[in-house]
Amino acid sequence: MAKKISIIGAGMSGLITGIMLAKYGHKVTIFERNNKIGKKILVTGNGRCNLSNENISKLQYHSMTSNIFDLVYEQFNLKQTKELFEEMGIDFVKLENGKLYPRNLQAKSVVQALLMECEKLNINIIYNVRISKVTYTNKFKITVDNKVYYSYYLVIATGGKSYGDSGSTGDGYKIATQFNHNITKTFPSIVQLKTDYAYNKTLKGLKVHAKGKLIKILNDKEEILREDEGEVLFTDYGLSGPVILQLSTKAEPLLSEHNSLVIELNLVTHMNTKELDNYLIKRLHRLSYRNVADALNGFINQRLIQPLLKSSNIEPTISAGDVTKIQRNNLVKQLKTFRTNVTGTYLWNQAQVTKGGINCLEIHDTTLESYKTEGLYLVGEVIDIDGDCGGYNLQWAISSGAVAAKSINEK
Ligand SMILES: Cc1cc2nc3c(=O)[nH]c(=O)nc-3n(C[C@H](O)[C@H](O)[C@H](O)COP(=O)(O)OP(=O)(O)OC[C@H]3O[C@@H](n4cnc5c(N)ncnc54)[C@H](O)[C@@H]3O)c2cc1C
What we know:
- This protein has helices at about 10-25, 40-45, 70-75, 80-85, 105-120, 170-175, 200-205, 240-245, 275-285, 290-295, 300-310, 325-335, 390-410, and strands at about 5-10, 25-30, 50-55, 60, 90-95, 100, 125, 135, 140-145, 145-150, 155, 185-190, 195, 205-220, 220-235, 240, 260-265, 340-345, 355, 375-380, 385.
- The strands form six sheets. A six-stranded antiparallel barrel has the order 13-16-15-14-17-18. It has a five-stranded parallel β-sheet with strand order 7-2-1-11-20, with helices on both faces.
- The N and C termini lie close together (about 10 Å).
- By secondary structure, the chain is an alpha+beta fold.
- It is built from 13 helices and 21 strands.
- It folds into two domains: about 5-190 and about 355-410, FAD/NAD(P)-binding domain; about 190-345, no CATH class.
- A hairpin with a 2-residue loop joins β9 and β10.
- The mean pLDDT is about 95.
- It is elongated, with a radius of gyration of 25 Å.
- The structure holds flavin-adenine dinucleotide (FAD).
- Flavin-adenine dinucleotide binds near residues 10, 131, 167, 353 and 394.
- Flavin-adenine dinucleotide binds next to α1, α2 and α13.
């Protein structure tokens, strides 16, 4: 028998839940506060939509309460995701690090395909309604403009708090608390990091290739929390770029505790420390007729030369031949283990994902139904699961939506 289901939120998780339910033959109504669906999908992967990744495991997912990713993903995995999207006309292409995108690299095609599927399946999408209250006796009741919508099933697919301009501003947490759910502390993740480096403003806009480490220091003991290699972007407030976004997934909530966090960059990845030292000895000797800043021209990015020399206690105008061993060692250290303190994460509105959310221990880990209220389901970013950068968060939105739909269908 066809069931009536209300879904709050027309992002990836709400749309997939709705599409799967409608395919099973149920009657779906989606409430969306924007005047269109999938506003956040449009900005994913720099407008190209990194939908998933060929290398998926529980390790790429994080939770402060319980990492239920595996139990959900095994019921709706990458193969099923590909089949679902291919049916909607979206072919996949694999780019760097196993990242999967629509073949035409256009996020708007993904949104368009989802919309056409909703239309084909007669899903009722009610736009421009911001749901703040849902009442429940033996069924869920949502009132919009004096019109009442009843359903035996309610799906909260409102997303988290990240990138609020897209419509996700934490409303799902408030709705879930109406059903006695507990929400963990939430933090921005996959986000730029603020640092206290004295030359941030000078270096703003500079992109370098580097191997980055996020290091926790507690009572002089150091622990590497995460490493990654690729592009790093200097900004006026700190650091950004793919490497930093990935490292940021481990920065919070440690930042709120009593340790210090440090970003360490290896700016010369093609030589080890000894090779670099030997190289500099020869180079400074060969170019000893120049000042040291000019002697580094063509080896280090020009904008980095002055800051790195100053941090190495080397006056840029001295002759390259006059650099002492201690100064050269300082420079090698700056190039191989450049360090800056992390002072915070950047803005919520710049964050790609929310760390934390609805406590996973209050949700059936194989169905995503609430333990608190029968018929209430939670999907996507609103739950306390966050993935790494690389297609993992959309895959979670898709898998969780599909699993909730399957469970509702089987009830
Ligand atoms: C800039 C950026 C780039 C990203 N790139 C990628 C990427 O390439 N790959 C990847 O895997 N992940 C990426 N992500 C993360 C990914 O987009 C999200 O994790 C995922 O889209 C979350 O889906 P969701 O359906 O749970 O929530 P959302 O997409 O946030 O959707 C929630 C929907 O609910 C609506 N809503 C909220 N509150 C209410 C309310 N009270 N009433 C009615 N409607 C409401 C919102 O308007 C929104 O449409 C990126 C995120 C950002 C911000």
